Amino acid sequence: MVADPEEKLSDHLKSRLEVGDFLRISGIQVIEFRASIILGSGSLSFEMIRTLVERLPVMIIPRWIRMAAQPIAIEDVLAYLMAAIELKTEKNEIFEIGGANKMSYQGIMKEYARQRGLRRIMIPMPVLTPKLSSLWLGLVTPLYARVGKKLIDSIKHPTVVRDKRALEVFNIRPKSTKHAISQALCNEEREFAETKWSDALSAAGNVPRDWGGIRFGNRIIDARKVKVNVPPDKAFTPIRRIGGECGWYYANWLWNLRGFLDLLVGGVGVRRGRRDPEQAYIGDAIDFWRVQAYEPNKRLRLLAEMKLPARAWLTFDVEPDRDGGSIIHQTVEYDPIGLWGIAYWYLVYPLHLFIFPGMIRNIAKKAETN
Questions:
Q1: Largest distance between two CA atoms of the chain
Q2: Coil, helix or strand for 311?
Q3: How far is it, in rounded angstroms, from Cα 175 to Cα 154?
Q4: Where exactly are the structural domains of the chain?
Q5: Per the CATH hierarchy, to which homologous superfamily does domain 11-188 belong?
Q6: Alpha carbon 136 to chain centroid distance?
Q7: Quick check: helix, strand or coil at residue 171?
Q8: What residues of the chain score a pLDDT lower than 50?
Q9: Long-range contacts of 214-218 (CB under 8 A, 24+ apart)
Q10: Which fold has domain 196-369?
Q11: Whole-angstrom distance, CA of residue 125 vs CA of residue 317
Q12: Residue 248 contacts by C-beta under 8 Å, 6 or more apart in sequence?
């Protein structure tokens, strides 16, 4: 919190100051860091910015959303906390920390939109009060409605670093807002790749927790799994043959229709088939997909190349089971771009509930009968 304590602050900002005061009253040594907006996946401010920019092509913004702030990357905040452990001092300390540049919420939203390839129109509205803004926020981002008003009440105060002593005491040079947002998006990519989505399913392994799939940052995940009584090499055989003349194991007429519609809008359609009917190689085209990752008898990851308002992947993973059988994991990953990308997912999701369970079910049958 880098706001001026002498100002009449919001309850949210006052509470942050009070936490430091109460800790110091306890008598233990306290090193307090006061930060402006923290940028990182999971940060309330960052998630609200993401949701607003992704969902609203046109935004009516109040004047105070242009108030000066000094956003800081979550990695830099953690670096300060780690460095404080080694700080040689016996007295209480207060440090104001911020990123390399000053930028308002409006500036952050513009930079996020730029990095996501989104065009957003922002219309100033000077009479939009914090209370009205919080009600509007509740309609657009209901997940944050309860805490959104508290945060909005705080945005009208400038939160910039006035005391630069942290830069003198610590050997840390915080990132710019541009790099902080880029790092947050890259971290999500890495965390996403390391997550095993089948572990997030119910015990039956077939039903996502929520309608539309599991949310992870901006991405939507629809995952399921099935057990087969054959070893991994047998379980993987129908997977490596998918597409082309073999088809997609379920509702092929829908896949063909999707390919035809893709051709109508200038996409690749399904005419490409596949180069090798038995083996897949990284970079190969399989109908309107591209092989992005391939590990024999373990993994096939396909990147969608049809026309979509999003990025999308279809991944199959096979792992051995304890009793000599195998478990086949099927994961659909969808990264919507803007409001139309989100709307498209929910419009076609009923079809997904029909197609993808049928696909993995027939893959399992094929594996056990080969």
A1: 76
A2: strand
A3: 23
A4: 11-188, 196-369
A5: NAD(P)-binding Rossmann-like Domain (3.40.50.720)
A6: 23
A7: coil
A8: 1, 200-209
A9: 216/188, 216/192, 217/41, 217/50, 217/188, 217/192, 218/50, 218/54, 218/188, 218/335, 218/336
A10: Alpha-D-Glucose-1,6-Bisphosphate; Chain A, domain 4 (3.30.530)
A11: 50
A12: 242, 255, 359
Q: What is the pLDDT of residue 138?
A: 63
Which H helix or E strand runs over 314? Answer: strand 310-320
Compute and round to an integer the Cα radius of gyration of the chain: 25
Short-list 71, 99, 73, 68, CA closest to 4: 68
Whole-angstrom distance, CA of residue 288 vs CA of residue 308: 11
- How far is 105 from 117, CA to CA, in rounded Å? 18
**305: which 2 tokens?**
């190349």
- Pairing state of beta strands 93-97 and 31-35? parallel
DSSP symbols for 20-63: HHHHHHTTS--EEEEES-EESTT-HHHHHHHHHHHH-SEEEE-G
CA-angle at 302, arms to 363 and 368, nearest 5°:
15
Taking Cα atoms as reference points, which of 92, 271, 106, 90 lies closest to residue 177?
A: 106
Question: For position 180, what pLDDT does the model report?
Answer: 94
Give me the residues paired with residue 303 across strands. 290, 313
**What pLDDT was estimated at residue 155?**
67
The DSSP-derived string for 64-119 is GGG--B--EEHHHHHHHHHHHHT---SS-EEEEE--SS---HHHHHHHHHHHHT--
Q: What is the pLDDT of residue 146?
A: 57
What's residue 10's pLDDT?
Answer: 61
**Is the model's pTM score more than 0.90?**
no
